[in-house]
UniProtKB/TrEMBL annotation:
One Pfam family it belongs to: TetR_C_24
Domain HTH tetR-type positions: 2-62
Listed name of the protein: AcrR family transcriptional regulator
Coiled coil: none
InterPro entries given in the database record: Homeodomain-like_sf, HTH-type_Tx_Regulator, HTH_TetR, KstR2_TetR_C, Tet_transcr_reg_TetR-rel_C_sf
DNA-binding region: 25-44
Superkingdom of the organism of origin: Bacteria
PANTHER family: ACREF/ENVCD OPERON REPRESSOR-RELATED, ACREF_ENVCD OPERON REPRESSOR-RELATED
Key words of the record: DNA-binding
Organism: Halanaerobacter jeridensis
GO molecular function: DNA binding
Length: 189
């Protein structure tokens, strides 16, 4: 990625996580990034384009890391465990991005709906594939891989969000073990 574009992304994430997209101006982002406002508009048409590009970039990075980390892992169960760990570590490392993403995803879903569908699709497909593999190998009893994948993503995302909103940071080990246990074993005795 172009170094200036990366500086802009980092500045935007910082400002958006602090003030939200509606409360942040392009001028504030350019100042935070140390670039001129004109430079900002050379890379992005407007704030919506910046937000959309930022969402895409973040999800693409997370998806790439997940694919890389599960490569060579044999069992679907172990892949799911690794996916949960990678997601939580990603959110811990990029907690400002997670705050921004959650706020924009839930708060402005209609505005960025097509972009979110496209991004989410790639990310969800990887996890669906693992679940399908687990069903084929009789590791999982899930009936619908899409429902199972979205459920897992929701568990991880909202649990991580809860932890860094109310506890200050993401307790990766604690959350990982609990989410994996609930997802793979259920809650019934």
């Amino acid at each position: 990625m172009n170094p200036k574009r990366e500086k802009i992304f980092n500045a935007a994430v910082k400002k958006f996580s602090e003030k939200g997209t509606t409360g942040t101006t392009m001028k504030e982002i350019s100042q935070e990034a140390g670039v001129g406002k004109g430079t900002l508009y050379r890379y992005f048409e407007d704030k919506e384009d910046l937000v959309s590009s930022l969402m895409s970039y973040g999800f693409e990075r997370l998806t790439e890391v997940i694919k890389r980390e599960i490569e060579g892992i044999e069992s679907a169960t172990d892949k799911i465990k690794k996916v949960v760990e990678v997601q939580l570590e990603f959110y811990k490392k990029h907690c400002d991005f997670c705050r921004f993403l959650t706020r924009e995803f839930w708060g402005y879903k209609n505005k960025f709906e097509e972009n979110i569908k496209e991004i989410r699709s790639d990310y969800t497909v990887v996890i669906e594939g693992i679940i399908e593999e687990g069903i084929e190998e009789n590791e999982f009893k899930a009936k619908d891989p899409e429902v199972a994948a979205v459920s897992l993503i929701g568990m991880v995302n909202l649990t991580a969000l809860h932890w860094f909103m109310f506890k200050g940071e993401v307790a990766v080990d604690k959350i990982r073990e609990e989410v994996i246990d609930i997802f793979l074993s259920g809650m019934l005795n």
